[in-house]
Design goal:
By secondary structure, the chain is mainly beta. It is built from 1 helix and 30 strands.
């Protein structure tokens, strides 16, 4: 009888089938160079990780845990997009207002695309439209790239400074505007912003992730130190969770019903999704100050955060790498 009562309570409270696993540091993959860093890109199909790092992109084999290749001669690199159908990758060069195209197999540079947009930052491939989108902070627009010809095919005015973006793979892209405290909804077919969601409980939104099953957006806000859960259909805020300071990125692990934020103050926040509208913080993991960008692996459920040790707010030479955190076995 007691067991039946417990199961009923668990089902009603949303805990059925959920076992909390504490994450811990598994290893650090050391990488050369002392420049600034930004986005990472996971390639689960080939068990590889792409790491942006100032004037280069490191390619790491997660099978061996060692560097596999390096794409160099870049300029203020920010993000990486992979277009496996075309066997190509795309890198945003923030200080050169360009995108570097590389061969997905050999990692050789194929072309540099000059952009009309200024300071490209986030870059992503949208499978639905078959286009690459480079979000440009200084010109407050998104540059659209044709992956067949590797040329700029258009721009989309955003009305603010873009940060992370995510696709629902059904024709819509959601993009945070950091300076406007908004999420804009881009219709890829129309090539324009069709809706704007005001983040009345959040300030300086940076990272964004999506739960496509429940049509929920997870956007993290640096100024207000919180994560907002939005109904993607109308922008309604359905939940708000406290997180660490100086947040940059957020990921959603559907299989584990887990949202993770990387906070530049020196920690990561783990949030359990009970259902579409109910969430709770389950762990605050200590990392290092400055570790603020992350990705996760669908296969291992490990999270990867890049960064270096800081000394008097400056990069300590020879300390850059990727910190790998995984669930306790």
């Amino acid at each position: 009888m007691k067991l039946i009562t417990f199961l009923i309570i668990a089902l009603l409270t949303g805990f059925a089938g959920y076992t909390q696993q504490t994450y811990h540091l598994v290893e650090k993959i050391n990488l050369p160079g002392d420049g600034k860093w930004d986005y990472l890109k996971m390639d689960d199909d080939n068990n590889r990780l792409f790491v942006s790092h100032f004037d280069r992109v490191h390619v790491i084999s997660l099978t061996t845990g060692k560097p596999l290749a390096e794409i160099g001669n870049l300029s203020g690199v920010h993000g990486i997009a992979l277009v496996k159908e075309e066997n190509k990758g795309y890198i945003s060069n923030g200080t050169a207002n360009s995108v570097t195209v590389f061969d997905y197999t050999t990692f050789k540079v194929l072309k540099t695309i000059p952009l009309s947009g200024k300071k490209p930052d986030c870059i992503m491939y949208d499978k639905f439209s078959g286009k690459v989108y480079a979000f440009c902070g200084n010109s407050q627009n998104a540059v659209v790239i044709d992956v067949k010809t590797d040329t700029e095919s258009g721009t989309i005015q955003l009305g603010g400074s873009p940060e992370f973006a995510v696709s629902d793979e059904k024709g819509l892209i959601y993009n945070n505007l950091e300076d406007k405290n908004e999420v804009v909804v881009i219709d890829t077919k129309a090539g324009k912003v069709i809706r704007r969601y005001a983040l009345k409980k959040g300030g300086a939104p940076t990272g964004i992730a999506i739960d496509k099953t429940n049509n929920r957006l997870f956007t993290v806000c640096s100024d207000t130190k919180n994560l907002l859960v939005l109904d993607a259909a109308n922008g309604k805020i359905v939940a708000e969770l406290p997180i660490g300071g100086r947040v940059d990125a957020v990921v959603y692990d559907k299989a584990k019903q887990l949202i993770v934020t990387s906070n530049g103050e020196g920690n990561a926040t783990f949030i359990h999704q009970k259902d579409a509208d109910h969430y709770e913080v389950v762990q605050t993991l200590q990392t290092h100050p400055g570790l603020r960008t992350l990705v996760y692996s669908k296969a291992s459920h490990n999270i990867f955060i890049s960064g270096a040790e800081l000394q008097d707010k400056q990069i300590k030479p020879g300390t850059f790498g990727v910190y790998v955190y995984g669930p306790e076995k």
